[in-house]
Specification:
There is one protein chain. The chain has 318 residues and is an alpha/beta fold. The protein contains eleven helices and 14 strands. The protein folds into three domains: 1-75 and 151-221 and 298-318, Rossmann fold; 85-144, no CATH class; 227-295, 2-Layer Sandwich (Alpha-Beta Plaits). It has a six-stranded mixed β-sheet, with helices on both faces. Strands 2-1-4-5 form a four-stranded antiparallel β-sheet. A four-stranded antiparallel β-sheet has the order 12-13-11-14, with helices on one face. Helix 4 (109-120) packs across helix 5. The chain is elongated, with a radius of gyration of 25 Å. The model has no long low-confidence stretch (mean pLDDT 89).
């Protein structure tokens, strides 16, 4: 549904995008990550046809954004970070205006608008003036605008900004549902949100693509064998003694009793050191059964920052 090839964008001497390529198929929610200035907004603006690329191609639903712009744009719904609202219009009038722009048949508009208002939870404010709505409701109206015309591709820039926790859950659920039958690109600074709703993640840094994969695959790129969470049966004092006998210096923190006589511990060794085998042997020697063990959780934030750090090191080495 979306095919981006060798996308490059220059602003004078500044390179905003440098040979970026990725694709997203039907039924997929793709997350676009990057620091400020990484090229996310430029990428979305080119995909939606708002600006042109210096080099490269964008195909939307099989239509080239340059040679067939009308057909390509008709397949896209776009919610920018600042929703394109007319504050003095009533919600329903604004959505009717969006229907006219997107050439929804006049006889279908009433039913179409009501369905989308129900989807986005704004039926109760349809008759109100947009400027009198809360920020959360204005965000929902912007999302409703993006859904007008049932586009095959949705591009959403920070779609949950300004929403309360319950609304965020509702919008995430809606995005996942829409992603089953269409293609969605979501840009967000909330990394846990990307992990929650996206099937794939593309990471941009300084205009270059530095990673492309599922959240799980990106986690696999970054190992933390020096961090372990384990359940151990036995006296906590004996557990601490076993850890202190390791050939490397480790810190240990008890995080609570899980079952009778079984406690959970977080154990951390030196960076770039695999402590797992040594830990297993030490507990076996002390007759302290390990009931469960797993690697230390790697957050999406950790993954993102490590990818940026590795990319910077590669650039410095050139």
């Amino acid at each position: 549904m979306i095919d981006v090839k060798n996308l490059t964008k220059h602003y004078g001497s500044k390179i905003a995008l440098d040979n970026v390529s990725f694709s997203a198929k039907e039924g997929q929610v793709l997350g676009l990550l990057g620091l400020n200035g990484a090229g996310k907004t430029t990428t979305m603006n080119i995909i939606t046809g708002y600006i042109g690329a210096t080099e490269g191609t964008v195909l939307i639903n099989g239509f080239d954004m340059i040679s067939e712009p009308a057909k390509a744009k008709a397949s896209v719904g776009y919610l920018p970070e600042q929703p394109p609202l007319y504050p003095d219009m009533k919600v329903k009038d604004y959505l009717d205006f969006a229907c006219k722009l997107k050439k929804v048949k006049e006889g279908d508009r009433e039913r179409h608008i009501n369905r989308i208002c129900e989807q986005t939870g704004i039926l109760n404010v349809c008759g109100r003036v947009i400027k009198n709505l809360s920020k959360g409701y204005r965000q929902r109206v912007g999302l409703a605008q993006a859904l007008i015309g049932d586009p095959k591709v949705l591009v959403l820039d920070e779609p949950t900004v300004g929403l309360d926790p319950s609304q965020i859950i509702e919008v995430r659920t809606l995005i996942r549902e829409l992603g089953k039958t269409g293609t969605i690109i979501v840009s967000s600074h909330i990394l846990s949100e990307i992990k929650e709703i996206c099937d794939r993640v593309v990471v941009l840094h300084q205009g270059r693509m530095i990673a492309d994969g599922t959240p799980g695959n990106l986690s696999g790129m970054i190992h933390a064998p020096n961090k372990v969470v384990t359940w151990v049966e036995g006296d906590p004092d004996l557990v601490n003694m076993a850890v202190s006998s390791l050939p490397m210096t480790c810190t240990i923190r008890e995080t609570g009793q899980k079952e009778k006589g079984i406690y959970e511990y977080e154990i951390k060794g030196p960076e770039n050191t695999d402590i797992r085998a040594a830990l297993f042997r030490a507990f076996a020697k002390a007759d302290l059964p390990m009931i469960a063990i797993k690697g230390g959780d790697i957050s999406m934030e950790d993954i993102f920052l490590r990818l940026i750090e590795d990319s910077n090191k590669e650039e410095e080495a050139k």
